[in-house]
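Annex B. Sample input.
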Amino acid sequence: MEILITGAASRLGRAVAEALKDHTLRLMDESPVEASGDGDTFEGSLLDQDAVWRAVRGMDAVVHTGEPPQKLPESDTEREKHLLELATRGTHQLFKAGVEAGAKRFVYGGTLDLFRSYPDDVYISELWKPLPEPDMPAMSRYLGEHTAREFARDYMVTVTGLRLGELVCEDEVTGQAPDLLWLDYRDAAQAFRLALERDASDQVWWTSRYAMYHICADLENPKYLINQARGLGYAPAHNFAANWQE
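Annex B, continued. Sample output.
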């Protein structure tokens, strides 16, 4: 497949590109990013409609990691405004251009942080109601999730949402008490790859074209259930076992 990856300069974007290196990739970011394999790169903002249209041309699928650009405004107000714009208007422009360009599969990277306010002794599945706190990093991802979902409702395309845990690298947190939100970058990349294998674009009911999955480590006594993601084939390999032994 010809796949566009946004936020490609981020650590998550690089991990996703590595997991998809057997495909032809176009790596998009506001910062310079190295090309991967036979693919190419595209430097531009999701808020630039013309740049987004040029980035999605010829793509079969769009992977929107949801990762913010490396450089954000210094002012708190301007930074929050920018995150909101990227998650809402940026996501809408990206998916709309993708639909018009003929892409059929879309993946959106959201966050499990929407459920952090729930106590840790509950088991949260995709059926639970998100309770986003009024901070823009989490709230913007939640609004972007809703924006992405509407494209499955309005168009014959497959849209898969991934609510990701807190991204860390297992090798870098040895000896620390694990957080129930933790998710290794490599397992997150695995989830994006599996999400791209979903193809429900020909389904009549939009609820079949859209799916949401919770993605985190497979921990003992979890807070976030990954049973539905297992149905995709998700099998996290980095579950912080050494941390539990500490």
